[in-house]
Amino acid sequence: MSMSELLPNHAGGQWVHGTGPGTVLVDPVLGDALVRVDSGGLDLPGAFAFTREVGGAALRALTYRARGELLAAIARVLLANRADYEGIACANSGTVKADSAVDIDGAIHTVSTYARLAAQLGDSHHLVDGEAVRLGKDESFRSLHVQVPCRGLALFINAFNFPAWGLWEKAAPALLSGVPVIVKPATATAWLTQRMVRDVVDAGILPPGALSVICGGSAGLLDALRPFDLLSFTGSADTAALIRQHPAVARHSVRVNIEADSVNSAILLPGEAPGGPAFDAFVKEVAREMTVKSGQKCTAIRRAFVPAELHDAAAAAISARLAKTSVGNPRNETVRMGALVNRTQFEAVCAGLEQLKQEAVVLHDGTRWPLIDADPAIACCLAPTLLGVRDPDAASLVHEIEVFGPVATLMPYRDATHAQHLARRGEGSLVASIYGADEGSLAAMALDLADSHGRVHVVSPAVAALHTGHGNVMPQSIHGGPGRAGGGEELGGLRALGFYHRRTALQAAPGVLEQLGR
Prior knowledge:
Helices cover about 35% and strands about 20% of the residues. By secondary structure, it is α/β, with parallel strands linked by helices.
């Protein structure tokens, strides 16, 4: 592939290049130019109309079962091209193979999961929601709720850290619902998203207009939305606030789902001993979440809470694990952690780290070890840093600032109630994980944290070797969180289809409603 190649967009059912010079995507380790992306000059209103009218109509004409078969075919195409995706991820995102797999295999698994779930919905074009209930004194007039596919399009504005999974965790339930998709990937890592869409479109699996990709700037995208469209955004809270104020959302009631900043927590319950199974599981997961994808996960552990008497032991154990993490060029087989996605992100993480150091001390400084096969003047590689705050009640920045990199802060707590209070100071998070051996205490803590978290991940010795991970988003469980995490909700099995359907109450005679129930 030419280093100067301009990747085409797929809009209005055709491949089309932007008319501007484009933005160059760069290898974050070697500094090499890769490809260019640009969306200038696109007829967005026309492309959006084609997606709604042509792509939407074709998808709605299919049954849920038939749409599930399309998803199964998509999964096969993605699997067949997996090696190419891995190469793109290494070059464009700077990730080691294991981290690329989190994104790519997670995407394929999610699409496959929704393909299987489609069988439960059968050969129907609508969903029945609950049972019919009478509205009067007898049964002659009743009400039944149904869900039908929205007649707009779904616009996805995605983040840079998961160019593969970020597309398909949204697109799979949308397409299964019968709603056509336009994805705007983050510019920095748009190559992988564009390539996946290209492979699926070129395979001729979906009807024209069902799946589009627009790479480059986002100007004009929100202006092209109409009242029955849907918008899903993953990114910063500041950008989310601007989206909520846009007329498409504020005045035209475009349905919006937002996943924003999240200062997630891990909590080791009282009564655990250093070196015990719960202690070891906690230490392992904190270190893993700091280093997987170089800490660039919206679900990564940012704050780790332990009983005060275990603070020093936990600090030593986590630091010992982090010291084994080799950092550098992901092409080197000995490297376990690659780069941050680009220089801008590298500088942002460094700046955020300096902010946290205003009230935290450094417990582990990974920068003491040299990078492997990487020039520190060019490579956007940053080794993991574990911080510590002895008085988490007096601190504020560690509960407010999400440093989107290999950084976490260890803090002590007095008792379980104090731990819950500290976790809630994140003002709403995507996930909290709790570690302990007493099942009653684990259950009580999980329920106490449920109101302020989208997911509570409970690790006891019974699942220490089996659990899916604090930061891994599984398609069977919902992904999202209240408060500063955005207030959104994705996935959760068939629950995800609710966002792409319109629930309506139908009031009629029992005979009419029985026809709908069939």
